[in-house]
Fold each of these.
Amino acid sequence: MSKRIEVKAAMSGIFYRTASPEEPPYVEVGTEVKKKQVLGLLETMKVFQKVRSPVDGKVAEILVENETPLKDGDVIFIIETE
Amino acid sequence: MGRTFSKILVANRGEIALRIIRACKEMGIQSVAVYSEADEDSMHVKQSDERVCIGPAVSAKSYLNIESIIQAARDTGADAVHPGYGYLAEKKAFAVACLESGIVFIGPKPENLALAGDKIAAKTRMQDAGLPVMPSSPGGVSTIEDARAFAEKIGYPVMVKASGGGGGRGIKVCHNVAELEEEFPVARMEGRTAFDNDEVYVEKYLTNPRHIEFQILADKHGNVIHLGERECTIQRRYQKLIEECPSPALTPELRNVMSRAAIEAARAVDYENAGTVEFLLDSDMNFYFMEINSRIQVEHPVTELVTGVDLVKEQIRLAAGGTLDYSFDDLNRRGWAIECRINAEDPEKNFKPSPGTIQEYHAPGGYGVRLDTHLYQGYELPIYYDSLLAKLITFDLTREGAIDIMRRALHEYRIEPLKTTIPLYCQVMDDNDFREGNFGTDYIERFLPEEDGEEDDDL
């Protein structure tokens, strides 16, 4: 049975899908990911934190666009896991 | 006497914007605040005489937007701009844009800004002027082979530094060849992305030195004075946390020698307005020129409390052509001042930022307390800007007295429910080594929880 796991913003901040504008996004829908793999970045008050996958699985949905300001607890990704 | 300004645009936000607006009010000068869409409710916007929205929340489109700020100055008829610190304060292009628009830039000349931003050129100029500088590669290093050769010549540990770096970014400490080979390309990359300049240099690294800086003032008529030193040793990741004036490490003789060197440094670059000359001091009391900061410093209040000189008003007066007709020895100096930079960061959790809305606010007061802050009850911290909440500064006739007042004031201060660095400073004020003035740059580490290896999440 596959489960859908939500990945939420740990605090409010600006979400980035890439490390810099020239680089490709960390993940796309369908990307296979390992537990702790970096999915994106969250910038809060000039500090960047990595958003990591809590499980092994596959990126099922990306719910927010690059450079979107998020609130604490907003869902960013849905990871599908076995 | 002389000319002054009728209206100053303050090209900054937060506590420093408020600090400058307060100086304007006291001088009878009109003030214009600029603000981003995220800062509509910010205190500097409420306190200024006029206000102009200069763009969206992201700094690159507002507080770093030269065109928009110059336009705001024109529209409001401001005859001068004060840049504060950070943002455009040390951007030569901004100073030039002001000049070309007939607006006075309250700060150093564009040439001073360019030199201060280029650390290799600044060091070379200081060496030529006879100042002691840290042994380093004579110019930029572009290959790992050259980096290795210089490191072997000057001896490990070494630092790889981005030539265009600042604020502690683009600095890598390497204890051996392996670390150098790993960090060299990273430093170049960071320099390229953060400062658009991938030139790096290799410099001798002092283990646990002290950071001592001298406040400089220079007028347009060739007079250069110093206003004593600030002790800025207590840092974390090259970000200053606690500063004081004077330094518990300096003897009057050493202060004399270092202050002369600081004035020499300012003269060597034909410096104008307020600036700071930073030195490193090793355990044998040898000092080395590090850099010139061509702006008002965050930690300027400790100098103000001890010397009685309002540095922001002096910046404004000197930019209008005023003369320095006094020197350090004429000042009625007394006592001791200490500053704690209170950040919205959790010291228990690797200094993670702590955004939010202030639900309960109580500011400390009483004898010997100065508080520079833009906070108020109900204020929501924007996520877009740095985490400096307040500068708490205390003053007394003795260092011990200033520490006692600081400890008391820190315990009074309530900024709920945010996590702040206040509990960390409470511990420091009770620490014997701090009270005895006995510390180096690694001092703060003893108060921090061991990093558990998974805490690599802040980049």
Amino acid sequence: MAEVKNKNLWVFIETDDQGSAKSVGLELLVPGRRLADKQGGALVAVVLGNNTDAAVAASAEHGADEIICVDQPELAHYTTDAYTKVMCTLVEKYGPTTMLIGATNNGRDLGPRVSCRLNTGLTADCTALDIDDETGNMAWTRPAFGGTLLAPSLCPDQRPPLGTVRPGVFKKEEPVAGRTAPVTREHVDFAEGEIRTQLLETICETAGELVDLENAEIIVSGGRGVGGPEGFAPVRELAAVLGATVGASRAAVDAGWISHAHQVGQTGKTVGPKVYIACGISGAIQHLAGMSSSDVIVAINKDPDAPIFNVADYGLVGDLKVVLPILTEKIKQAKGL
Amino acid sequence: MKKILVCVKQVPDTTEIKIDPVKKTLIRDGVPSIVNPFDAYALELAARIKDKEPGTTVTLLCMGPPQAENALRECLAVGGDKAYLVSGREFGGSDTLATSYILATAVRKLEALEGKFDLIFCGKQAIDGDTAQVGPEMAEHLGLPQITYAVEATAEADRVVVKKEVEEGFEMIAAPYPCVVTVTKPSFDPRFPSIKSKMAAKRATIQVLAFADLEADIDSSRIGLKGSPTKVKKTFTPEVKTSGVKLTAETSEEGAEKLFAVLSENHVL
């Protein structure tokens, strides 16, 4: 466990191989601001990578009070060993009160490793962050299945408590151009062989379709109720007239009707579009966890008791195979298509 | 010949869990228990290494209540050679850090009995908790390198080469033995058991590691509810939108018209 030396709240700013900040870190500066103010500490962006000037500048423009930056070639590409060592070294030296990590694949690789080395608690995939009024501790809320749906967890004794948050849960703010923040630079030495994994090759997946659910304004999603791979045709047609992205529930993905890239929910993407249209999706908790922060939710389902109706702003009990083509046609007419 | 350990968890089939529409709580009764699907993929990766390199052994390790034995038997039928179950009330209520500590202690115990493992495979996460923390935390306790989100693994003579899923595609990553590998959904399905392998699994002995077996090597202040740094404060159900409009109609055609009218009126589309 690391000693707490101040009330500062840290946000890990993950960078890509070019040294630019990944979006989720900048998103986390939003709740980070609120929590740091509540705790009376500074909001510190921790930027790790190589050639990170752009990420440092972006962190300042997105509201960080201070920046700690470790910029060295060993960090150009993420490795568990290098990033864990650097992060633990920084935490022990500076003693923050809390740290937020984006739940990217790398963030989810790093978080548990750091929490274990520091012997402190980590809460994964938080959907809400707050300060517990009674104890002043961070309250991390995440979906859980142990009897009910959401479980705020506290880490009352070990420090600093850590939490990961998935991309898309918070929306980043507009940057303030030219805003700067003081930067503290650190360097961590590595012995020969200390980084045990070796990247042999990167395979970019451009063959499959690129599905940008996180930034979609409208999403039309299909679930078990679409009935088969061909059942996605009316879903796609509705999406096409709306300029929407096609999403899917785990049931539809697991059945092999549509690729995993479309999956919304606990094991897929977390989304927050302006409009989410759920077609034949019952609304399993895992799915709700990934889309319930959408501005407007429309649900079409045959089953009047489907839990999706609990979160829907507009629900229709009906057969999507009949409803979707009519809806698509009506929208086409209205748009003059 | 490699020595491989595969960690498995028995989980409720969360796709079967439904919300009580009145009480807004989960209905857990009658929900079947299954082998965590990601652990089944991990086992398949191990079994494929064994297919290529006969003489390789696949040991299974599970922590859970006595009935988790069923999950281990299922795994013995599809590639596992022997199985250990860590079970005891003392372990209950452990969060991921405490769980990984117990598992790491059990791994050391098994290694003392059977020699070092070259590879430790885990599912990337369990579908009931979805934290993806236990594998990496166990690797840290054991001081081993880790590769997460594996979809393929090739056991070369002096290193493991893993195809790892990342946001932009895949990476090929190599690590020396011993190494912890956490596995996500590969492009293939796990194998099916044969009648013969099922029968053998049914008869197999599952060795139980109780608290007493690990007591000498474990710091009991780091396990169970008390030894867990994270505490669940309370649970609650997310708010139900009371403002929601639910339309019903005699026919779906009529419903579609109604829905379009409401959505247009409220400028949703």
